[in-house]
Amino acid sequence: MSLFNIFTVAGSAMTAQNQRLNVVASNLANADSAVSSNGQPYKAKQVVFMSTQPAGGPQAGSTASSVNGVRVGKVIEDQSPMRMVHDPSHPLANKEGFVTMPNVNVVEEMVDMISASRSYQNNVDMMNTAKTLLLKTLTIGQ
Questions:
Q1: How far apart are CA 5 and CA 8, in angstroms?
Q2: What proportion of the chain, given as a percentage, has pLDDT over 70?
Q3: Cα–Cα distance measured from residue 86 to residue 142, given in angstroms and rounded to the nearest whole number
C-alpha cells in the first residue's frame, strides 16, 4: 500500500466518524423530548458503516489488500422499546399517567461519542504520521 493511500482511507474514516458524531449529538439532544417533529416520540438512531470500493471499482487480479475506505452505509432506528415515564401531570400522559419517552440511553450515547471522537483523533494522528514519513522520505536524497 502506498503512503498516499493512507490519506484516502483515513479521510474517509474521518468523514464517517463525523457523521457518527452528528447522529450521537442528535440522539443526546432528543433524549428527553416527548415528541419529535413527526408528532411521535423520538427513536434513537444508529450508524451502520460500510466498506468502500477502491477508485475504479474492483479490478481483475486485485488482492485482499486493495485499498478500501469506509462510509456510512445507512442510519437506522434503534428497535429497543421506548421508555415509559410516570408523570400524570404531563399533557401527553396516557390514562395510567405514563408518558412515552425516547429509547435513547444517555450512557451508551456518551460512550459512543467518546469512541467516535477517539477514532477520529486516531485517524488525524495517522495522517500526520504519514505526512511526516513522506516529508522525511523526500529529504533522504538531499
A1: 5
A2: 88
A3: 74
Instruction: Report CA torsion sign: 42, 50, 1, 56.
Output: negative
Per-residue model confidence as pLDDT tens digits over 11-55: 999 999 999 999 999 999 999 888 888 888 899 999 999 998 765
* Four-point Cα dihedral 124, 127, 132, 133, nearest 10: 140
- Predicted confidence (pLDDT) at residue 60 exceeds the cutoff of 80: no
Q: Which residues contact 121 (CB under 8 A, 6 or more apart)?
A: none
Conformational region of residue 39, where left means phi above 0, alpha means psi within -120 to 50, and beta covers everything else: left
Cell matching residue 92: 401527553
Give the span between the Cα atoms of 6 and 8, in whole angstroms.
Answer: 5
CA distances from 116 to 14, 73, 123 (A): 9, 16, 11
Nearest to 103 by CA among 43, 29, 56: 43
Angle, alpha carbons 33-108-96 (nearest 5°): 40
pTM of this structure: 0.81
Is the confidence at residue 57, as pLDDT, over 80? Answer: no
